[in-house]
């Protein structure tokens, strides 16, 4: 069977549920005119693999970030929407619900070079490949390898509660905003204690930790786009680059430069 290069600028051009194969893959190249996908869901589970740049994926009550050499797993039937940085190159792997042992909830996975190359190879094949043959055997190896992929805590809990959504929208619009919890409470006509309890009950994090995790998600996305550490630190309102690096290193165990070097 000849190679089938299934590369499109928008995932909306491809319906994975038309195929009953155990897994099919789709490569998405950078496209300045395309940055996101409307909320939708699939019969198949979906793995979104970032090859270059970054992808963010929003599901109910959480925002998941996919830095290079990682992937976010979205179980079958889960409504989600995606946003892709302008320099991003991504691969989508769609998996039949009964074809592999995968997590029941959304998560971020670290992807090995072997899994990456298998997904890329599958993206070049006809998605209607025979159920028995070379491609089907490679897919079996791919799905077995995926079941061992380590999980990474690269997500931001987000609630649909209007007060929390208001704060999140404001901080995404201006990440350098250093409004305190007490000031947010005054703006939202509630007490500081009530707002602190609301944030913790909805997200599992204190307000300070939640805002720091939001900063980490934005930092990873901007760094993956190619922005400098100094620029990102300034965008997030840090008083110094060292303060930003300290936050980043505490969260991920490495400085921004070391982190992205290890991904390469």
From TrEMBL:
CDD domains: cupin_NimR-like_N (cd06124). Keywords: DNA-binding, Repressor, Transcription, Transcription regulation. Gene3D superfamilies: Homeodomain-like, Jelly Rolls. Residues 165-262 form the HTH araC/xylS-type domain. One of its GO terms (molecular function) is DNA-binding transcription factor activity. This is AraC-type DNA-binding protein. The lineage of its organism: Bacteria, Pseudomonadati, Pseudomonadota, Gammaproteobacteria, Oceanospirillales.
């Amino acid at each position: 069977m000849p190679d089938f290069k299934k590369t499109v600028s928008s995932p909306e051009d491809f319906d994975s549920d038309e195929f009953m194969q155990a897994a099919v893959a789709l490569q998405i190249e950078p496209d300045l005119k395309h940055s996101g996908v409307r909320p939708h869901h699939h019969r198949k589970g979906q793995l979104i693999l970032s090859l270059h740049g970054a992808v963010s994926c929003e599901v109910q009550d959480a925002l998941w970030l996919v830095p290079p050499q990682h992937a976010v797993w979205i179980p079958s039937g889960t409504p989600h929407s995606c946003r892709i940085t302008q320099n991003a190159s991504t691969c989508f792997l769609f998996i039949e619900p009964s074809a592999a042992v995968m997590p029941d909830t959304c998560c971020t996975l670290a992807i090995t070079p072997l899994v990456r190359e298998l997904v890329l190879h599958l993206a070049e094949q006809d998605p209607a490949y025979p159920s028995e043959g070379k491609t089907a055997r490679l897919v079996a190896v791919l799905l077995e390898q995926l079941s061992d992929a380590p999980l990474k805590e690269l997500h931001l809990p987000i609630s649909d509660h209007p007060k929390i959504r208001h704060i999140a929208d404001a901080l995404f619009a201006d990440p350098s905003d250093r409004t305190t919890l007490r000031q947010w409470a005054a703006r939202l006509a509630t007490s500081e204690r009530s707002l602190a309890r609301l944030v913790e009950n909805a997200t599992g994090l204190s307000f300070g930790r939640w805002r720091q995790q939001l900063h980490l998600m934005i930092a990873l996305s901007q760094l993956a786009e190619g922005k400098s550490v100094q620029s990102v630190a300034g965008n997030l309102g840090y008083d110094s680059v060292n303060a930003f690096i300290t936050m980043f290193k505490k969260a991920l165990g490495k400085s921004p430069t070391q982190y992205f070097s290890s991904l390469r």
